[in-house]
Amino acid sequence: MTLPSTRASRPGLQAVNDFVVKFANVNGSGSASANELFAKAILRMGVPVSPRNIFPSNIQGLPTWYEVRVNERGWLGRRGGVDLMVAMNPQTWDADVAEIEPGGYLFYDSTRPLPPSKFREDVAVIGMPITELCNAAYGDARQRQLFKNIIYVGALAELLGIDGAVLETLLGEQYRSKPKLIDANREALRMGRDYAREHLRQPFGLRVRRADNVGDRIFIDGNSAAALGCVYGGATVCAWYPITPSSSLAEAFQKYCARYRVDKASGRNLYAVVQAEDEIASIGMVIGAGWNGARAFTATSGPGISLMTEFIGLAYFAEIPATIIDVQRGGPSTGMPTRTQQADILACAYASHGDTKHVLLFPEDPHECFEFAAQALDLADRLQTPIFLMSDLDIGMNQRLCAPFAWDDTRAYDRGKVMTREELEAGKPFGRYLDVDGDGIPYRTYPGTHPTRGSFFTRGTTRDAYARYSEKGADYVDNMQRLLRKFETAKTLVPPPLLRRASRPTALGAIFFGSTSPAMAEAIDALEGAGVHLDTLRIRAFPFADSVAEFIAAHERVFVVEQNRDGQLRSLLVNEFGIDPARLVPILHYDGTPITARFIARAIGEQAGTRAPAAPAAAEAHVP
Amino acid sequence: MTYIAKPGLHHPTLPKNALCYTRRDYEGKVSTLCAGCGHDSISAAIIQACWELAIEPHRLAKLSGIGCSSKTPDYFLGNSHGFNTVHGRMPSVLTGANLANRELLYLGVSGDGDSASIGIGQFVHAIRRGVNMVYIVENNGVYGLTKGQFSATADQGSVSKRGVVNTDNPIDMVGLALQLGASFVARSFSGDKQQLVPLIKAAIAHRGAAFIDVISPCVAFNNHAGSTKSYDYVREHNEAVNRLDVISAREAIGVDYAEGELAEVRQHDGSVLRLRKLHADYDPGDRIAAMNYVHAHQVRGEIVTGLLYLDPDPHDLHEHLNTVATPFNALGAEALCPGAATLEQINASLR
């Protein structure tokens, strides 16, 4: 070691329960579980955290990052900037070091000497000879690699004041079924803590202090939450094709079903999961199952949606329930598969050939992934049409602190308008595409219901209200008009937008949706602090409620904050409401990383023509 | 083309099956295909087979893709639900439908363009999954509805109506089905009702992926000299390896047979397949031998027909997935929803 283990050249940042730690690792080195342990320990101390994986399309070797926002106030979005960089990957060293806030900290493996030019004067450096320690303690190469991660977690815990007992409890929970690993991991943890206590005694300004700000909230990723929502919502068929970032959703459904959906008497499954040959077959199976009266869903991402579009049009026109969960990622298809975006909005809203419009739901977090997944299954049956749950990688693949799941045992599944054998027997008239109730939703029958009544031939081509083949223009137009009425009905059934008024009357408004939510909340707070007041509306579904148009009409200028290049939600608003585009100011973030509070605050601040806050107040507070 | 209903009047002396249905009760709309189309003969064979087996029409779901063949489900079993899906994608829709309700019979009707070109992927995967279905390909070697382009089953060297010679190798659907593990594989000819009807009956009685390739000449675009899918060509080159009688479980077995070697196979539903061997060297119980036999004869320009392979003890997708006996579409929240108390436990495990 040529460099001293610590060389803080300037006073470091001082912050308690409010900072950002970023781990820079090599993919496949076993860092993920150690980093998660770190985040969970802080959470168990009652301090809200929001971790985010920024990972490559790779199994081993490429750079991967894990960013942990620690924030006692509960801001769960990305703030922007890094206060403590745990730089474990030589490949990305320069960029990682450059990202640290002035006055921040750099923690690194000092086993191999690095020239002074590799460091920054305004960043405090904490070197720990991790490889050397591991090589001394372990003979096995894989152990040397894996325990490196636990050792740095132990050292960081000591530096930050994370309760060692909490970490040990978590290890016990994690390796409940493998007790041997508990002891080995605890040993490595202690090795890191002991080293830090004895050798890393320097001024270190970041602290974790016990708090009580987590409450009864749960910590889960959106894909697991949506999968659980599908279990609770009564999905029996899941057909899917592996695609990042949605694969873990189907796998979670399988896991939950194995636990909660096995018939006790027979030992047989109350579900079917089929890994299809492609996304076309996935949606085909979902449509077949929906046509035949089972609740079915698929999980996919943008490229999968592209492949499904012919079938989506068929389901729209033939009016077949289907639930499609789109965990959005960076486009195009082979571009940024492991990065997040909200860039499939238009592709899904108008998916397929011909005149089509689809119902979209926009969850903001895992809690809403659960709620909306269960609701999507109801809506699909009620509206007899595809329903899209528009999640994204940021929500889907990151664990997020959110309100606990809730279920009312008196809640019945809404199976929609299905004519029964008894009704048919009693002579109730049946026309598959008749608008009996004036809401645009016709009655259907399941195959096999009645020997002589209620059967029909399902087609993508034109038919009359009795499902008889027709090439008459009038039949086609009638049907298309009815489908529009049905879309109007959908407006009344989907989750309404949520309005938040500024502390004083304002002519400025902001519209946002989905995973932008936590960063938006923090940005609005920071803007208020800087004197910029905005009313906000979080859109939770398409078709848009009339109140969305009213909100826009009530403000001189409305910022539309999105994570895509083209302002897709804005286009949808302009198109559906016929709004003057000049009224809607796009605020767009699309580099593949989750949007930050700083970005939103700065962009809106500049546009609003007032002093732009350099950073949200929470972030500024601890800059010396 | 508009919709034409058939008159509902039935002749009082029409014979009735065990359910007191006449053959007319298994018919559909008037066909809109060309006069003499092989597909209409197949529809008639389906109607005959279902009537003879006394299938409740509404307990069968008929699904198809796109093309002339895929239009036909509208022309039979008018009291069955039908689904004309998208081009080449019937197998996935049928698979999903089958998962939703395992109690119905599923009949997939497709063509050579639908199943051997655009939909070959779905055909392949539905067969290898062992979906319990009857999958009929009405194989005429051309795209009829778009007026006579070659399909992927057209033989190399065969000549189109416009005089173009096909240079591509053909896809043999029977060979594929055998290789992919279909537990019932047959080939027939739309012009041979005596052979086709029992094959369809046996396929319906089969619990597993049953595939029938039916050569079905296209009178408009592929029935000329130089075609290998014309009526004349198929009649001249048809090599039937066996003849089949299907005796359903409810019938007494006591049919008299002419001379010849007989083999009996009992299927899961209790039906008995009585096979009269026409070629002493053909064994429909041997998948590998069947593949060799079919291909050796194909090279000689012969079309081997009959029951080509049968696994009397097949397994289907529901068995692989270990699903409950109750159809999924009959399960309610009480069976499917783990409930609020369980959700509280899940919440607790996430803190």
UniProtKB/TrEMBL annotation, chain A:
Q: Give one Pfam hit by family name.
A: POR
What processes does the entry annotate via GO biological process terms? Answer: response to oxidative stress
Query: Where would you find the membrane-spanning parts of this chain?
Result: none
Look up the domain of life of the source.
Bacteria
**Pyruvate flavodoxin/ferredoxin oxidoreductase pyrimidine binding domain spans which residues?**
230-405
Every Pyruvate/ketoisovalerate oxidoreductase catalytic domain range? 28-193
Protein name per Swiss-Prot or TrEMBL: 2-ketoglutarate: NADP oxidoreductase, alpha subunit
| A GO MF label | oxidoreductase activity, acting on the aldehyde or oxo group of donors
Keyword list, A-Z: Oxidoreductase
UniProtKB/TrEMBL annotation, chain B:
Among CDD domains, the record links this protein to: TPP_OGFOR
Specify the Thiamine pyrophosphate enzyme TPP-binding domain's residue ranges: 66-214
Q: Which GO terms describe its molecular function?
A: oxidoreductase activity, acting on the aldehyde or oxo group of donors, iron-sulfur protein as acceptor; thiamine pyrophosphate binding
SUPFAM superfamilies membership: Thiamin diphosphate-binding fold (THDP-binding)
Q: Which UniProt keywords apply?
A: Oxidoreductase
- GO BP, one example? cellular respiration
What Pfam families is this protein classified in?
A: TPP_enzyme_C (PF02775)
PANTHER family tied to this protein:
2-OXOGLUTARATE OXIDOREDUCTASE SUBUNIT KORB-RELATED, BLR6744 PROTEIN
Name of this chain's protein: 2-oxoglutarate ferredoxin oxidoreductase subunit beta
Q: From which organism does this entry originate?
A: Mizugakiibacter sediminis
Organism lineage string: Bacteria, Pseudomonadati, Pseudomonadota, Gammaproteobacteria, Lysobacterales
